[in-house]
Amino acid sequence: MNTEEVIQNEKEYVLGVYGRPPFVLTEGKGCTVYDSTGKAYLDLVAGLAVNVLGYNDAEVNQAIAEAAATGMFHVSNLYHTAPHTKLAKKLCETSFADKVHFSLCGASANEGAFKFARRYARERGHDDKYEILAFSDAFHGRLFGSLAATPREKYQQPFEPLMPGVRFAEFNDLADAQNKMSDQVCAIIVEPVQGEGGINPATPEFLQGLRALADEYEALLIFDEVQCGLGRSGDLWAHQGYGVVPDLLSAAKPLAGGLPIGAILMKQKVADTIHAGDHASTFAGNPFTTHVAYTVVDRVSQPTFLASVKEKGQYLMELLDELNSPHILEVRGKGLIVGVELDIEAAPIVEKGYAAGMLLVSAGDKIVRFVPPLTISKEELALAVSKLGAILQEA
């Protein structure tokens, strides 16, 4: 099918919940994708912070071939398989966690974390301790529980009533969190670096204060690292750069290099309160995806790899600062999750990026988000910033 046929078929047969530009992507190599006409686009989106090793990576391709050769794409969680246990061990060894539970995406990982937090409180005799404390500008997913913890009217209002028992405080405002906390709260959920909400890094004092607050009220601290985790911030897990340890952590986007997977990492004290049959997922932890995910996690967790992410992230922010555009109000982020706040709408900038051969994405109405593959080169970053500078100058 040509470009027009693909777009027409999509319009006719696919539910129209996404707004897509008028081209069809067909292949990728490194940090570049190509459309059906052969036009190249430097990718600063990485499948929404998913493709941390870029496209057509040799090691990922080899892992896919190895997994495919077994024919074991899925057998369900009724049976033992080696790949998911190997991945779980790797995740525990490289984090605070003692146990891992696999899911299919970030939203389902957060939903599972909420269930585990409620179960933890109930097992300790607190039947009325079921509320969740979340924060302004948060994004935790689009399912009923995760959506209830995502304070955006345009996402929530059409589907109300949502899961009850979620209260909100201002992000990076510890005093407000303390005021909103109560004995009914079983868990605090926060992104160490907010993604969809505008690329807002938490302050060290804020995360440290939330840890103390959770301990004071015998609540669990959940870090949502679906977007900022697994190397994106320059540390393997974003919270490691803060020196604050959670009780639960949700991960997803980059774990399997583009294949669907999510994970809930937890301390043993949480695992001890979860029993057989309390939670499940048909496709979660299947041998194909977890075999590929092990390769991704092993590669990204290497100290030299993480050091390069920090170095390139700093370089990117310096390049953006040097643009000195009157439209840029602030550049912020950690590692290779960077936001450029503008005094103009971001959507037209993203649109002009397509013409310039570049994929960009917004994070709010006036913020351009950089979440490229972690393998991107400094030369590619310089090219991207140069293109953005030209677009802003034209604007």
What does this structure look like?
The protein has helices at 3-13, 46-49, 58-70, 82-93, 106-123, 144-148, 153-156, 174-180, 204-216, 268-271, 287-300, 303-322, 347-355, 378-394; strands at 25-29, 32-35, 40-43, 99-103, 131-135, 166-169, 185-190, 193-194, 200-201, 220-224, 248-251, 262-266, 328-334, 337-342, 358-359, 361-362, 367-370. It has 395 residues and is an alpha/beta fold. The protein has two domains: 3-57 and 303-394, Aspartate Aminotransferase, domain 1; 72-300, Type I PLP-dependent aspartate aminotransferase-like (Major domain) (Aspartate Aminotransferase, domain 2). A seven-stranded mixed beta sheet has the order 4-12-11-10-7-5-6, with helices on both faces. Strands 1-2-3-15 form a four-stranded mixed beta sheet. α3 (58-70) runs antiparallel to α11 (287-300), α4 runs parallel beside α11 and α12 (303-322) packs parallel to α14 (378-394). The longest helix has 20 residues, at 303-322. It is globular. It starts with a helix and ends with a helix. 47% of the residues are buried.
Task: Provide a brief overview of the structure.
The protein has helices at 3-13, 46-49, 58-70, 82-93, 106-123, 144-148, 153-156, 174-180, 204-216, 268-271, 287-300, 303-322, 347-355, 378-394; strands at residues 25-29, 32-35, 40-43, 99-103, 131-135, 166-169, 185-190, 193-194, 200-201, 220-224, 248-251, 262-266, 328-334, 337-342, 358-359, 361-362, 367-370. The protein has 395 residues and is α/β, with parallel strands linked by helices. The protein has two domains: 3-57 and 303-394, Aspartate Aminotransferase, domain 1; 72-300, Type I PLP-dependent aspartate aminotransferase-like (Major domain) (Aspartate Aminotransferase, domain 2, 3-Layer(aba) Sandwich).
